[in-house]
Structures are given as structure tokens and as C-alpha cells.
Amino acid sequence: MEVTSIVNGIIIDHVPAGTSLKVLEYLKIDPSKTKLALIMNTTSKRFGSKDIIKIEDDKDIDLDVLGFVARQATVDVVRGGHIVEKKQPHLPEHIVGVIKCVNPRCVTTSEHDIKQMFHLVHSDRLEYRCDYCDEEAKL
Asked: GO cellular component terms (predicted)?
């Protein structure tokens, strides 16, 4: 199998094996409308196996969201066929519009114009709580 290099775009590397489709969903990237390559369950020296997402063209990737769904991932920015920048996502303190509150009494379930907002409570357990009702997010 041959996957060619990209000229301009990004490479999201070290995505946990088998999770690249979920990562695309969280990043709000539609695979049917985006020129991309998914390499799934490939060998990784660091993790044993991994996924790689290559996205052609300029896409703004929300590193906060990426830090939430694939903290160990790395992002390489490619221009003119060469990697010009490497980025490392970090676990975000706040997440807006990514996950939904499961509390049926939360104002965000009845008022659809309110953005779902969560704050990090405990980084080791990846625990986030709703900014409105303090319900723990179910990830």
C-alpha cells in the first residue's frame, strides 16, 4: 500500500490505534468533503500501533479538541512538501461545543442556543464537569 506525501496541509500522527474516525468527528472534519488519508493500525515504535491522519489543504485544527481526544498525538504542518512546524496538543482547561451534558435538568438540554461548556476538574482522570450544572461529562 502506498500513501503519497502531501504538499500543503497537516499530518496528525500518533493517534491512538482505531480512533481516527472518532478524532475526525470531534474535530468536525467531514471525510466526504475533505481530501484526506487515514492510515489505521500501523506500527508505532512508541505505542505499538497507531493511526495517522493526513489532511491536504489548509484546515484549522482546534488543538484544544485534539488535546481532549488524542492527547499523545502530534501535528505536523506541511508547506511545499516539507514539515515547517510541529505542534503538540495539550489537555484543555475548557471545552466548548464538543461534548454534551447528560443531565436532563441542565439548562443546555432545554435551551438549544446555549453552548455546551465544560471545565477540567481532574487531569489524571480526564474529568470534566458542565459549567452550568456541574454534572460530570461521560466520555
From this structure: aspartate carbamoyltransferase complex
